Amino acid sequence: MITSDLQTTTARKQFGSDRSLAITVFVLLTAASLLPVLLTPIPAMVDYPNHLARMYILSRNGTAEANPYYEVTWALYPNLAMDLLVPQIAQLISVENATRLFLLLSQSLIIGGALALERVVKGRVHLAGFAALMFLYCLPFSWGFVNFEFGLGVALWGIAAYLAVAARAWPIRFVVNAVFVTALFAAHFFSLGIYGATLGLFELWRAYDRKAPYRDAALRLVVLAIPAVALLELMRLTAGSIGSEGSTWFLEFKPLWLFRIMNGYNLTVSGVTALALLASLYFAAKHDVLKLEPAGIWLAVGFALFYLAIPSKLLGTSFADLRMIPAAALILPAFCSLSLPGRRWTVAALTIVTAITLANLATVYLVWLSYRADYAAIISSFHKIDQGSRVLVGGSSEGEDPPFNDLTQYPMFYAPTLAVHYASAFVPNLFTAVGKQPVQARPDLRRLAIPYGGPVPIAVLAAVVAGQPPSGVPAFISTWQRDYDYLYVVGRHVANPLPDLLEELDRSARFVLYKIRRTR
Fold it and tell me: Could you tell me what percentage of the chain is helix, strand and coil, using 3-state DSSP and rounding each to the nearest 5?
């Protein structure tokens, strides 16, 4: 009896020690993960400068400093998280800081939502926080899909809230669901889809597990769907929209994204950390240390099928399918059980998690800190542009978007869009997609606006000037030498391809600014 008590006491002490170690590691990794946003005025995320430029337009709309080339037209679009929040925050602090605060809030929602979901499902937190840290700078997040990141964070909290009241009466479930559906509809439509898919799969598992009558299961699903259906109908009646036409499957990329998802700047780091994570999960599962609960199996199978079925480009939105991967990585840990046999297992698990998190973080720090000088240089170059000019963005590469041969160049692609603020300029690459953003180009300039599109290869621009444009050349560059005043060429330096037309005004490590000697 005494021996048994001593063993129990020793086990409790070891558990408490292991838990303290895990908490300490988690707190330190969390601090290290949030620090990059605080250290960089403009985070080096691909879409982030473009979003920041739009925030400047929204914040100055209706003032004497409003950009003359753009107009703000609000409608019921399901992709408005930062468009609704940042201008309000910017009334108290600068637009730049308000946008960073939004990003920091999105990251906090991801981490906190993962913890909350696991707490509701298991009654304690164990795995989800570490999963959130490992994926905090995964490809969709590090490429600046900030509305999706915010929306996914809200979705995690919504799933946790719904599961907390899943056994309550239907009016309570309806109210909780309606609140989060409304918030997610406004924030990001794909995040709403993840929320709905997760709860739908959970309800199907619940009905199967409890052998519930078909009528009861159907009614629970109907209660779940009513708010979303109502909002879609309201959007139709108010002439709102979701994105644009066009869906494309790139099935050959779906296996590759599993190894490219972990890091948006370095494919080698991404592949190595993804392999390390998959190998660790396989090893833990094989030794019965890690188990997926029945509800988790339903969710995992459902997520896998959705990943295969969702187009790579959905309603005009690129990289739609790969967003399922971080969503699954943040949700499934709540439905896993981990039983580490001893302290060595605990230390090994924490070492692997720490190594994966720090490997990705190191890349983030290197890229983001290096871009502080580049973004400062391009902001300085805007002072060499006449106010109210038209600015075209070209690329020194052959048009690969994303530039997988060197992803560290990617965060510069949309930096010239900040000219809409610093020089009151028109830049065709500014995100102005109907159904996504409330900012539109003025009607007389819409032929030049491309709601989504990267830099035009300089070789294509040269061919247009030479009178030998490639087939299908878009309208916004068909007469670019007459339509624009300045040209930014981003990427690695190349010699001036049109010295008689382009006059160099400024350059930095990642861009060159030219003045266009406009022709008639």
Answer: 60, 10, 30
pLDDT of residue 399: 53
- Residue 362 contacts by C-beta under 8 Å, 6 or more apart in sequence? none
Identity of residue 393: V
Buried b (16+ CB within 10 A) or exposed e, 56-86: bbbbbbeeeebbebbbbeeebbbbbbbbebb
Tell me how far apart the alpha carbons of residues 184 and 49 are, in angstroms, rounded to a whole number: 24
pLDDT tens digit string along 151-174?
999 999 999 999 999 999 999 999
Those residues with Cβ within 8 angstroms of residue 400's Cβ, 6 or more apart along the chain or in another chain: none
Per-residue tokens: 397: 């590469």
Name the band, by pLDDT with cuts 50, 70 and 90, for residue 2: very low
**Residue 298: half-sphere exposure toward Cβ, Cα within 13 Å:** 15
**Residues ≥6 apart with Cβ < 8 Å to 110:** 132, 136, 149, 152, 153, 156, 330
Q: Determine the pLDDT at residue 11.
A: 47
